[in-house]
Every structure is written in structure tokens, then in C-alpha cells.
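Slide 14.
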Amino acid sequence: MDDGDPTTPTMFLCEKCGGQMYPEYYEGVHGMKYRISDIL
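Slide 15: predicted structure.
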């Protein structure tokens, strides 16, 4: 589901319900860091 935009965190789809999932913490390949609290 990730569209490759480095300004947004990586997103996944739940295999059970199809809902969107975000990692609690993720450091991208370009050094950008994302936290779930940044989007909530």
C-alpha cells in the first residue's frame, strides 16, 4: 500500500480486515524517522 512518498510513513493492509496499519516506529531508507504518535 506504500506509494513510495518519503514524506509519509510506510503503510500496510491488515490481512484479516483490510484496514490500514502503520508501524509504531520506522526509520526509512533516507534516514527519515516516523512514529505512530506523529499521525494520531
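Speaker note: The chain has a mean pLDDT of 76.
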